[in-house]
Amino acid sequence: MFEITTEAPVLVTGATGFVAGWIVKALLEAGVTVHATVRDPTDTGRLEPLDKIAQAAPGAIRYFRADLLENGTFEEAMAGCRIVFHTASPFTSRISDPQRDLVDPALLGTRNVLSAVERSDSVQRLVLTSSVVAMYGDAADLAALPGQVLTEAAWNTTSSVAHQAYSYSKTVAEKEAWAMHGAQSRWSLVVINPALVLGPSVAGVSTSESHNLIRQIADGTLKTGAPPITLGVVDVRDVATAHLRAAFDAAAEGRHIVSAESRTFLDLARMLRLEFGERWPFPKSEAPKWLVWLAGPMIDKSITRRFVARNLGYPWKADNSKSKQALGLQYSPISKAVVDMFRQMVDTGSLRAPG
Ligand code: NAP
Fold it and tell me: What is the pTM of this model?
């Protein structure tokens, strides 16, 4: 059974993040005291949206400074907590050094948070935000899976620091979490593996790569043709629900693919055009794979020929039945998430129609 109820405080790492915001909101509205770690608790502008929710809700929020790369910084925030949500991990393409900017914070951060869990005598459950990219590296990898469908049994074996560094960062971090969990029997680990998360953010603005992707669909970058990529997509509010069920349902265990639908960039553009019309330069067609292979690396260094060869033009299918059965998830249509997200980005001024 699932009910958000606990007398003990609950720790959320990276509390001002896109995914974390909705987890914190639900906890506060259920009357829970949230211990929220952020890198900079003096940045009151970033804390304001959560403060406003806390003021109107029965729960309370306390902020703690913690950095994934600083050993021991999570211990104060973890004191007395029975549940820990570890969501903090960089999800951005704006990096110069993939080891330093993605892999180290993901892996060393997980080690750091879980070491604090090991030292704590109160924590009973850790919910880790992993990703479907810890299960596969490139879309081409799915062809080797039984039925060509991604399941919780799969692990990403093809990513590295040099190729798909973000996917690699999530893979090594989740593996580390399972290894540390396996060495003890006092606390349980439940992992949420979301596909691409879309939807509005609690804070109104966001640094998540999810928002950059929608920006690229809207700002004319893909006007001459969207890359033919199919991805799993899911509403951020469903991702938060999955985390909460993973935390508060005693029977929850293992990994969970959290993905509502398989969609192409062009599908997302069509959903947006239907709602927001022709004044936005949404792509109307897909660019041929050979053209992206040829021109992509010249336009953007992160679009390598290997990435294009192994990710464009492939189907993407995942089995989300465990999330429905074990976590009771009922997925919302992704068109609503995309439209709500886009509308918020326009309303907050983070997206402007050209011209
Ligand atoms: P986000 O809004 O950018 O959140 C990332 C969070 O990580 C931020 O709160 C950030 O803190 C924190 N962080 C980054 N580096 C840190 C460091 N060195 N020390 C402490 N905190 C640090 O992105 P998001 O989309 O919500 O991502 C949250 C989690 O979901 C990540 O684990 C991500 O891998 C996972 N995920 C996301 C998606 C998606 O499509 N968005 C899909 C699957 C999984 P600051 O606020 O201080 O920067």
Answer: 0.97
